[in-house]
Amino acid sequence: MKKVILKIEGMTCSACSNGLEKYLNKQDGITQASVNLVMATAQVEYDETKVDRKMLDTFVKKAGFKSLGEYSGKEEENSHKKDKILFIIFGVLAVILLYISMGHMIGLPIFEFLNMHENSINYAVTLFILTILFLIYGFDIIKSGFKNLIHKVPNMDTLVAIGVLSSFLYSVYSMIMIIRGENSFVHELYFESSAIVIFFIKLGRYLDGVSKDKTKEAIQKLVQITPSKAIVKVDGVEKEVTIDEIKKGDIVVSHAGDRISVDGKIISGKAHLDESFLTGESKPSSKKVGDKVIAGSINYDGYLEYEAEKIGRDSTISQIVKLVVEASNTKAPIARVADKVSGYFVPIVILIAIVSFIIYLILGFGMGEALTTFVTILVVACPCALGLATPLAIVVSEGKCAKSGILVKKSEILENARNIDTIVFDKTGTLTYGKLKISKVLNYSSNLNEEEILRITGSIEAKSTHPIAKAFEEYLKEHKLGKYNVEEFKNLSGLGITGKIEGKQYILGNYKILEYFNIENNEEKIKKEEKELSKKGNSIIYVVEENKIIALIGVNDLLRENVQEVVKKLNEKSIETIMLTGDNKETAQLIAKETGISKVIADVVPEEKTNTIRNLKKQGKKVLMCGDGINDSPALASSDIGVSVNSGTDIAMDSSDVILVKNDLSKILDLITISKKTIRNIKQNLFWAFFYNSLMIPIAIGILKPIGISINPMIAGLAMTLSSLTVILNSLRLR
Predict the structure, then answer these.
(1) What are the φ and ψ backbone dihedral angles of 537, each rounded to 5 degrees?
(2) Residue 243 burial (CB < 10 Å; 0-12/13-18/19+)?
(3) Is residue 466 a contact partner of residue 620, using CB atoms and an 8 Å limit?
(4) At what angle do helices 14-26 and 53-62 cross, to 10 degrees?
(5) Residue 125: pLDDT band with limits 50, 70, 90
(6) What positions carry a catalytic annotation?
(7) pLDDT tens, residue by residue, 421-476
């Protein structure tokens, strides 16, 4: 199976996106298709043995739309300059048209040449010519409307096209009758209705386009954050190249003030980098040789040379953009309700309009009034607001999450996160850093300081393959301490290690190594401090110099920053917190007590973790599992929402629903908050959209005419535009 995201042209409302989605899903070889109205994209998963890329473009064309190829994420933002110029020109023409057709109603002076009673032919022909210009201006709407009707996926354009052309053709008939001398038909001209409806629809499209660009702002900022040019070093000479010319393995140079061009690894220099666009942290990160750099980061103050590792679509930024766009293309359950309603809505509206037209004629109303009612119903009922209600809010929230370092893979997560009542944390690598660090050094030597003891210990540990040795290796690197030459190194399995430095014998290991070498530990102070270190979950290393204990070193897997604060806030929200770990119960209880986690389930294997999650769900709990995304993958997949902490450079490899780019657990709280606000916003949007249609269709039919309330096609067009604006502005509040 292969997945592709196509850029689609020609979608104007939810009926368009629903129609295309249904059409694609019916095709043999397509396993799943999801269409996004706001992003104007279609995510298609297909069987390469049955369907190829060209066939997908053909399917889109047959459905009445146009495929612009794969979505690259690098489309330039539409300035709408051309649309703006046309809108101004036709705005002036609309004023002229309304002045000619309706000026006499409010007492404005009328040119004798265009007097509807004295020169009715001039009047009719002038309105006809002006209306033809508007039909050319709105030809894309008319074409789309009838094309979608032919393909049995009627949409908003279909409603407008039928209404506008019906009004226009009847007006043409009336104009012909006027030319033949039947001047009474001058009151049966509705050219201005056809023209002004198109004008208001175009106004709505222009405003929609500008607003949709704003909803995609966060994604566009991510796309545009990578520089277009870079400096590479070839045979010691710096050379400027375009970003596309960089190859994997090239040495790229970054000066202070530059943006990092591609993902890579520092081979020379050091600097502070601003990665806030990805992590949300304003504090610059210190980078040195061996550290990873991410494309788009800003080099504050140093000179770096780094080896290009991930370029083009493999880069972190490209993967993030892909994930965000894919998430935007998935459907939240609440969106499916609106989609289903929109799918039936257009045919029902056309039926209501036709029935109303016939009833008006049966009741003895004139053709003109019956036609006006028919057109008004079609125009006022356009489901624009209904179609925008959910996808606009989802895209804004997806962008907000991405900007905050929360990558949500499916939009349904934004709906479900608000209902979470239980959060299960893995311990190692999630609540803790997942790698051992030196937590405490107790120095009993009379002539060696702490740094010197750690240098001696680190030099001997460097010869070992034990996991604890990495903690010392990290310390030596971080503090730029060189290693001593170690002689006569020995590894005593289960006890520790020994070695000689500058002729002195050093012994490192647990308490058993003291018994092995008959070393007495008579100092009460050392015994007491050893117990205190053990209580805090440390692994204890005795450091012995020539049969004398000179230090105790505590090595521990340290808690991540702000874990206690996150757990405290979750408890305040009445969300149950559980630690689920394969570690022993004593260590787990210690961490739980330190963090404030209410329940501990320890000594479990991966299979038991999965069963635990399933049992919690059987109890009716809504479970979010937070783990490292690899070892905990079965449990992550079994939970309602799987959240993975990640280094930020292997994002696309995780199988969880949500990725925390910078391993910041506080982002779980942000996710829940954004989820609540998003669903509240969508419900508000749907309410206003349904309320508008429920209110305006009866008024358009003429139910309130007896009390003097009625609307015509022009007012209907304006009302439709205003309803869409209400939904757009409400969605943008999420930003």
Answers:
(1) 80, 15
(2) middle
(3) no
(4) 130
(5) very high
(6) 426
(7) 999 998 877 888 767 788 889 999 888 899 999 999 999 988 887 767 888 888 88
Fold of 227-314: 2.70.150
Q: 155 vs 163, 196, 265, 330, 424, CA distance in Å?
A: 13, 20, 52, 21, 46
Q: Considering the domain 437-556, what is its CATH architecture? A: 3-Layer(aba) Sandwich (3.40)
pTM: 0.63
- Whole-angstrom distance, CA of residue 511 vs CA of residue 526: 12
- Kindly report the CATH number that applies to the domain delimited by 2-79: 3.30.70.100
Q: Which tokens hold the place of 183?
A: 């001047």
Architecture of domain 421-429+560-639: 3-Layer(aba) Sandwich (3.40)
Q: Of 431, 439, 435, 483, which is closest to residue 461 (Cα–Cα)?
A: 483
Report how far apart, in Å, the C-alpha atoms of 94 and of each of 38, 117, 501, 632 are.
29, 22, 93, 64
User: Quick one: which H or E segment has residue 111?
Assistant: none
Alpha-carbon distance values, 694 to 178, 336, 531, 676, 727 (Å): 39, 20, 73, 27, 16
CATH 3.40.1110.10 in the chain, residues? 437-556
Query: Where along the chain do the CATH 2.70.150.10 domains lie?
Result: 227-314
The answer to whether 31 and 362 have CB atoms below 8 angstroms apart is: no
The strands making up 658-660's β-sheet, listed across from edge to edge, are: 406-408, 658-660, 641-645, 623-627, 422-425, 576-580, 599-601
For tokens 């007491």, what's the residue? Answer: 528
| Strand 658-660 with 30-36, pairing | unpaired
Is 148 in contact with 16 (CB distance < 8 Å)?
yes
CATH 3.30.70.100-classified regions of the chain = 2-79
Query: Are the CB atoms for 44 and 24 separated by under 8 Å?
Result: yes
| DSSP assignment of 330-399 | SPPHHHHHHHHHHHHHHHHHHHHHHHHHHHHHHTT--HHHHHHHHHHHHHHT--HHHHHHHHHHHHHHHH
